[in-house]
Amino acid sequence: MEWIIFIFVVILSFLLMGYYSHRADQEKRKKFLQKYQNEELVKRLMNNEFWQGQSKQELEDSLGKPENISTQVLKSKTKEIWKYNEKKKNQYTLKITLENDIVVGWDKK
């Protein structure tokens, strides 16, 4: 009898986590649609995509805030490298380069 109750509680917990996760995704999607008013863009953001030409704000909405940022200010541009997924100290599996707040490239290991 205790096992049945335990299994019931575990299944109920998973169902509730799925429900709240789905609801959070719906709220996030709704917020993005209000912000960007572009269904295709919102779809890409919800899929955590990044691409050349993406704005800094779109990148943050897609992947979240980076774990680390390296900034270089030059005469004609500002260059930032957004770093995600720290593997070891100062080693990241994803580095995205932005110039003047626009994604221009990345290095994914």
Oligomeric state:
single chain
- Structural Rg: 19 Å
Structural class: alpha+beta
Report the principal-axis shape. Answer: flat
Strand content: 25-35%
Q: Main β-sheet, in a few words?
A: 4 strands, antiparallel
- Widest beta sheet: strand line-up: 1-2-3-4
Number of helices: 3
Q: How many discrete structural domains?
A: 2
Helical residue percent?
A: 40-55%
Mean pLDDT: 89
How far is the first residue's CA from the last residue's CA? 50 Å
Weakly predicted, low-confidence segments: none
Please give the number of β-strands.
4
Give the helices and strands as they follow along the chain. HHHEEEE
Report on the architecture of this protein:
It is a single chain. This protein has 109 residues and is α+β, with helices and mostly antiparallel strands. It has two domains: 1-47, no CATH class; 52-109, no CATH class. The chain is built from three helices and four strands; from the N terminus they run αααββββ. A four-stranded antiparallel sheet has the order 1-2-3-4, with no helix packed on it. Helix 1 runs antiparallel to helix 2 (39-46).
Keywords, please?
2 domains, 3 helices
Give the SSE layout:
Layout: H1 2-36, H2 39-46, H3 56-63, E1 68-73, E2 78-88, E3 91-99, E4 102-108
Antiparallel strand pairs: 1-2, 2-3, 3-4
Summarize the structure.
This protein has 109 residues and is an alpha+beta fold. The chain has helices at residues 2-36, 39-46, 56-63; strands at residues 68-73, 78-88, 91-99, 102-108.
